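Workshop exercise sheet. Pairs work together: one partner reads the sequence aloud, the other fills in the structure field after running the prediction. Swap roles for the next sheet.
Pair: D.N. / O.F.
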Amino acid sequence: MTRSIKKGPYVDERVLKKVLGKRPESTGPIKTWIRRSDISPEMVGFTFQVYNGKQFIDVLVTEEMVGHKLGEFSPTRKFTRHGGKMQKELDMKKKQAEIDAAKTAKATTDTKKK
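Structure field:
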């Protein structure tokens, strides 16, 4: 559910204070734990280090991100693939096929040089 239009966007004062009156080129990454803050147009061009509960993830703010939350670009859960044993076997076959293709490509370039 979105925030009421009557209330307006929520931009945390501490984050806004770090951005206002500064240039993105001269300012390094801004470290923040405030994931709930909306991205405002003043933040475009700045790099934020957003905490995801374990580490800080760099987020470079672009114009398309305005109106979204900072936390949307710093995922808190790590995706572990589906599939289990069968998927692992398929991945191993695919990796071996790539290695074989690289070897044959190298062999053909070596024979052309001679």
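Discussion prompt: The CA atoms of residues 47 and 60 lie 4 Å apart. What would you look at next?
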